[in-house]
Amino acid sequence: MPDDGEGNPRYAVTGTALWGVQRETGLNLGSVAFIGTVLGEVMTHAEHVGEFTHNLTITFHEHYLTAFEFNPTGVHSERAIFLGTYERG
User: Fold this and answer.
1) 16-44 residue pLDDT tens
2) SS3 for 1?
3) Is 37 within 8 Å of 9 (Cβ atoms)?
4) Can you tell me the distance from the alpha carbon of 56 to that of 70, in angstroms, rounded to the nearest whole number?
5) pTM for the predicted model, two decimal places
6) Across-strand partners of 11?
């Protein structure tokens, strides 16, 4: 994907989060898809759903990235969130 007009890299981000895989009533599934711009080492994404705001921050490190999703209202899915350290491919 080409950089933005100011030379900042852009990436297409897609992901699926699962919670409660072992629950008798089934799991909760969350997904995300957007195109984001990296400013410095950080990409942020905010999505407004009604009166609620869903935020995802991805920080790029040399060989991995970290993700932190603030989703207190279950915008995409209750308890299924993106949170952790991921190895860069």
Assistant:
1) 888 888 888 888 888 889 999 999 999 99
2) coil
3) yes
4) 6
5) 0.81
6) 36
38 and 60 Cβ atoms separated by less than 8 Å: yes
CA dihedral over 63, 69, 74, 80, signed as positive or negative: positive
Q: Which two tokens stand for residue 5?
A: 């007009």
Closest CA to 31 of 75, 88, 84: 75
**Which two three-digit tokens encode residue 36?**
């984001």
Q: What angle do CA 27, 82, 63 make, to 5 degrees?
A: 135
Alpha-carbon distance values, 31 to 15, 20, 79 (Å): 6, 15, 12
3-state SS of 35-58 is EEECECCEEEEEEEECCEEEEEEE
Report the C-alpha gap between 53 and 28 in whole angstroms: 20
**Phi first, then psi: what are they for 8, rounded to 5°?**
-85, 135
